[in-house]
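Internal ticket - ligand job 539, CU-O-CU linkage:
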Amino acid sequence: MQFNRRDALKLGVVSAAALALPAERMARTKLSFANKLAVSSMPPPFTAPYVAPPVVNLTGDVTSVLTSDGKPFYRMVMSQFRQEIIPGLQTTVWGYDRSVPGPTVMCKRGVPVLMRHVNNLPSQHPQLGYRPWTSVHLHGSASLPQYDGYASDVASPGQYKDYQFPNTQQARTMWYHDHGVHRTASNVYTGLVAQYHIVDDLERSLPLPKGTDFEGKSYDQALTIQDATFGADGSLIYDDGDQSSLYGNVILVNGRPWPVMKVERRKYRFRILNASISRAYKLALSSGQPFIMIGTDGGLMPQRQFVRRYRHGMAERYEVVIDFSKYPIGERVVLQNLALRNNDGFEHTNKVMAFDVVSESSTSRNNGVPKLLNPGTEVMSLQESDASKQRSLTFRRSNGHWTINGRTWADVEASGFQDTVADPTLGEVEVWELSNPFGGWFHPVHIHLVDFRILSRNGLPPKPWELGPKDVVYVGEYETVRVAMRFGPYPGRYMVHCHNLVHEDHDMMHQFEIRRPDGSRGDDPIWADPPKDLPDPPP
Ligand code: C2O
Ligand code: CU
Ligand code: CU
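stdout (structure tokens):
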């Protein structure tokens, strides 16, 4: 067997330190500041028209390609291309299917999908120069370990990997993004991010906004929010503040700076994903009207909640309904970003996008939000007393590293990917206490595979917008959050990490291993079904 970089990574030979030398980082930072796009050359907020990303509909009827065992098959290609983000300038990006964000994938509950992800990226990152390896994670999906985007299960340019996505969970807004070890932040920042929705009968039966408006635009919109900094030539500037955090001065929604959307006088549903690297948002409407919160990471909440402003950490998904029938035609409502601790602000980072009310509603159908949405799910009924075990995970910076209980992904690599921070038994419920003992940072903590219920934050009940199934929780400054979850449906090794992707890459990530009650182990995330070299065969 030939020993290449990929094998070296898998064996943990390449250490985090070797990947980014401090001198290299400093040189890069200086270079980027010199070329920054002037504020005067930036597009004024609310001038770019809103766009929705393309859709890949795999909900059944329209799927033309099936695998030999009858699953919908879709081949998606990661590549480098140029896209106009700042009007008049071209930005070199990496995207899925030549789009940033990538296409919104729609699947039906109960219909598994085989998705081939082809790494067709160039041999070098356009600014950072590294050779890209990728691992695709469907965030929010209960996938087998070898299809979960395990950070060290990487595909190099010229390789592809077939991912099996089971789509067994209730309707929800998920997202897929790159998870390649030590390169997640820059791979995502360069554009490898998109939404993925599961639809089901319960959700379809509710009169929530759906169908299309006067422009043919859906009443159910995916909003992916990111922040970025651009060079005078339109290039992306990656400045992670010496491996601490990345805060851009431009806010993008679906790849457009501060866009403006035309809406009718009626209700719209928005699936809001914060796909920023390090920025959290405190969202509110300029009119003071509350959002009608209907869904969280794991799908519909038991009950709708009215929320005037809420904290939206990285990787969290919140689904809100906004009722524009309250406004006269001609009114503009701005989605604002109020100040939030430990987030660097710039001139226009206090706003996200705007809605212009332009016409009456084309239809009175699907214009409601029932009080009860999805009561009685298993996860939202979990109690402290269901837990067979309690564990504590502490997220902190120590000796220049981001750590979990003092440990990092480097320890996982050094152990041949065996080391764990927790060893739950398949089917058991546990309570994890996640804490951030300091005031200098916040950490949105993500636990792979499971949905959890938030029991408390600093001993108090969860916030109203958190009363739904979650897979990421904002662990703010000096906060301790308790969450309850049942471990399953599969045994295996899965990651737990901070979703500030700069923290994750350097190296606030570890893993837990679920074993069956008899002690037997699940599939190996790296070796069970590794990426293959192109050319790829038909499904
Ligand atoms: Cu969205 Cu492990 O990540
Ligand atoms: Cu995830
Ligand atoms: Cu963090």
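Auto-summary: Residues 1-32 have pLDDT under 50 and may be disordered. DSSP finds seven helices and 32 strands in the chain.
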